[in-house]
């Protein structure tokens, strides 16, 4: 080799275009000023990742880079000027990196910051052996150290859980964290029932959060797949119904759409009772359009909300709920795959053969 050093490489699932996700040997990043290199241990597949690979999401997506954003690992290397992080520390990532200066950021809406970057979309993602955390993300506090109570096998779920926490707060902005007594407060008395349409990973996360917050006396879920209905019951739903068995009779205080099927929007609107809250939490295809009876909103005085991505404080709240034992994420990931079997992993996730599906990149 004539004394020449060989640049280090790593395995990465490179997105090369719709339907083309390839395992490649690529250059391992070297952290520059202010950056942190994370050795990825676990990374889970988001519904958005599926839409990217299938070509149904194209906004902000780059070709030639690994995707993936739900992850946890250990610090591999820190760049010059980085303080507060050391190699070997266990970390997880809040992926929405805001500017901190715009109107939305100042109004506590950093998840809607027009200048934000989303790690795994705008940057190389987590479906790789290593992931580079940009200096802006490190500086803004998006790299969270994991307490001993939170294992690497559940930590990737903090990212979608943070998004769900944001959705809950958008649905009921007048509420703060769960009451210290563990019992609903007087302000929660108007939300005794909750319907969650879809018992996939997002719906089940919302179920677990609802049970942790203890604001609903009755939670009903709808789901076409029997094994996911069984999971819903196992995780605390009072009832889990096939969609055809669910009668949207205007009786629920809160209704949440947790699966991006446009037909569920009308179902949700008809399921909500007087002054009910309806959350269109799920992501829909870019060309999706819906129709519903506007008189339901008018005469029932319904409140329609959404929930997109998460703020750092939502992520911190999710981490706190797991750390203190209020919420147990065990069992939500049904399948772990090595990066080399990515086709089987995405097939399992796309065909909804289990619950959450992820990659075990390292021990």
Major sheet: size, sense and barrel closure? 7 strands, mixed
> How helix-rich are the residues, as a percent range?
10-25%
CATH class of the largest domain: Alpha Beta
Can you count the beta strands?
A: 18
What is the count of helical runs? 10
Taken from the alpha-carbon principal axes, the silhouette is globular
Straight-line distance between termini? 32 Å
Q: Tell me the count of domains.
A: 2
Derived structural class: alpha/beta
- Any low-confidence stretches, pLDDT <50, length ≥5? 179-184
CATH superfamily of the largest domain: Medium-chain alcohol dehydrogenases, catalytic domain
CATH architecture of the largest domain: Alpha-Beta Complex
SSE string, helix = H, strand = E? EEEHEEEEHEEHEHEHEHEEHEHEHEHE
The name CATH uses for the topology of the largest domain is: Quinone Oxidoreductase, Chain A, domain 1
Mean pLDDT: 93
Write up what this structure looks like.
This protein has 363 residues and is α/β, with parallel strands linked by helices. It has helices at 47-53, 103-106, 135-140, 158-171, 201-213, 226-234, 263-271, 294-300, 312-323, 342-350; strands at residues 9-17, 20-27, 36-44, 65-66, 70-78, 90-93, 96-97, 117-118, 130-133, 143-145, 193-197, 218-222, 239-241, 252-257, 272-280, 303-306, 333-337, 356-360. The strands form 4 sheets. Strands 3, 5, 6, 9, 10, 17 and 18 form a 7-stranded mixed beta sheet that branches. Strands 13-12-11-14-15-16 form a 6-stranded parallel beta sheet. Strands 2-1-4 form a 3-stranded antiparallel beta sheet, with no helix packed on it. Helix 4 crosses helix 5 (201-213) and helix 4 crosses helix 9 (312-323). Residues 179-184 have low confidence and may be disordered.
